[in-house]
Amino acid sequence: MNMPVLAVAFLAGDLLLQQAGVLPAVSWGWLILPLLGLLAWPWGRRRLVVPAVFAVGYLWALCLAHWQLAPGLPASLEGRDVTVVGRVIGLPRQLSYGVRFELVSDTLRDARGNRMTPPRRLRLTWHHPLQPVEAGQRWRLHVRLKRPHGFMNPGGFDYEGWLYREGVQATGYVRRAAGNRLLGETFTLDRLRQHLAASIHTSLPGGRFTGVLEALVVGARGDVPQDQWRIWLATGTNHLMAISGLHIGLVAGLVFAVAMFFWRRVPWLCLRMPAMQAAAVAGLLAATGYALLAGLSLPTQRALIMLAVVMGALLVRREIRPLQTLSLALFAVLVFDPLAVLSPGFWFSFFAVGVIFYLAGGRVRPVRGLRQWGRIQFWLTLGLLPLTLWFFQRGVLVGALANLVAVPVVSLLVVPLALIGTLALQAYAPLGHLLLWLAQGVLSALWPLLTLLAGLPFAQWHAPAAPFWALVLAVLGVAVIMAPRGLPGRWLGTLLLLPLLGWQPSRPVIGNYRLTLLDVGEGLAAVVRTHGHTLVFDTGPRFSPSFDTGAAVVVPYLRNRGIRTVDALIVSHGDNDHAGGAASVIRLLSVHRVLSSAHRFVASGRARPCLAGQHWRWDGVAFEMLNPPQGLAGSRNNRACVLRVSSPAGSLLLASDIERPAEERLLAAGDTLHSDVLVVPHHGSRTSSSPAFLAAVHPRLALLSMGYRNRYHFPSREVTARYAARRIRLADTCNQGALQVDFRGGAGPRLSPGYRLQARHYWNNMSGCDLKLGADARFSSAPQQVVEKRHEGRSGKAQTGAKAQFPGGK
Length: 810
Hints:
Largest sheet: 9 strands, mixed
């Protein structure tokens, strides 16, 4: 039976399971097809073998998925104080406000002392640790846990999926308690890694590239500064920071060559074992040691398995063709880790090797030397372009040139110097310090080139998310382009690339518009798109100097939808949960105008004040600012920008965080508040959504931006009862992820199923967020609703008269 066919069949079965929205139960009935395949093999009925291997791949992934998800955290323990005993694994990461680490739990007791089955692996944050947290320590801690829950937005990072792949079953934080106590310490491999990372940090205190060296030696990438990460990403060299195939293969290759050189020169050694086999053993042992030093991360495991297949062929003295080698490696990786298919690195690894094998085959005159290296980098960049656009919606146009220089410099100079230097620190510190200093010097010499390339206006090209069929055509097109020169019509492969490169998502027609309320947790970020314009209303919170929802949610969503320019950014007020991501949006995208009521934005010159009376029209859609009036004093919430959007297709009111005083002022001003759709003010706080305000707005649909188990316990039960009493349907971002409402003429505003439902996988948290609706649940969130189009008391035009026009409005 053809090994590549069987490997693809096993892969297909694994992939089918990973697309499931709900995890099927394990049943003995699943074993029928594999058993039939095994029974049919001796009788020559090999057609059943491929379906049998497909079924085995599916079953293997299913069994692991059940094991990975069990036991999980019971819903009854979420948000409650519990006591856990466990061992610290991995490398704890020092943060500005504490430490984050992972704990393998042994026991868990609730507040009453009852022993419960604990989740196997916890991800914890400790804001004020009693002492430095180190790998191998055994702690008893009082913690508060919750099940994995992350933002769910188009183009965004699936945090829940990442935690699932890492085996983390609950997250939380350590509570201040007298019972928190260190129970003991054990020397582990992670303890050694932490010691080596600390020795690098001590040897190069405050060094510019200390974090990079730690990443290359022990796989600790948490200390690489964000500005450096941006350069690595912009030049397509970020793969050098992951200890994967390139570095594992480099270490194995260097040790293989050295072992071969010396072994051949000792005759009695050659009599006991051929030099080729001895070198293969040495190379595999060296690669295994480096992989263990790097913490055996998933990319490292994949690389080590692929290398073991190659070295195994040398040990058994069998010549395996490249395609057979790749197929065996694929089989081995999937058997060891069926979840590997969920990682982009898995696909990039095998595609990169496949591209190199493809280039090497069928060429009569292979190219040698520097020209060959440059050619490989060019074709690798082109060959991986479809995957890059598919996974990340961007292409790095300077990647071939950057990797042409960076790969040999980092792999042949920096990595050996860093590895040998770190080991030398343990025996003779001056030598180790010198080697690490040289490694940092080499990076310093490389950095100006990478910075120059990253700063070029054409360094990166962002493209919207395309359908799967476009990816398939693009991969075929690249294969045709890279075919040997003797194949006629290779230029036709470029035609197959066009659907992926030129794909554009649909956009509203003139007079219609689309609202997307993004899932940013306890905050607000909304995007209003007309036929040719984009408005962003608030940008969500900033959680740390290195993470905010502007860069993590708003910008990826806009790029996913093919939007590169923001015509207007409205920062309603200065609270972090609304303005925290504004700086990232301004930095990463072309923003034409900024309006805000936040004094710090206006005073800095980055924004003009938003004032009641401003209005403008885009593509047949009217925008009108209702709040704040000129010279208003008071709380930031009541001075927040309030925007009403309207067209013959329907109306929308974005009320930000206004409270009852602002609502009463809007009612007294006599403005047209009536709207089909209302974004609930102040996340459902009891100080907002007064009965009179709801009566004036009279929406059929209310959208609520809320965070999972947020500390303010929004929305208030009293507020949701008001909406239920008025038969106003509620949809929220916590239960449904990003919400999209299309305002289409003749059909009325239409709410699509939330993104959490559209992109649902079996690992996603679908347990729901409590909306506190009480007994009357008829008005809770629904997956799909049509809001009836109504005409009474609504104007498709903005109020004019003495009101000022928005600068530059069309």
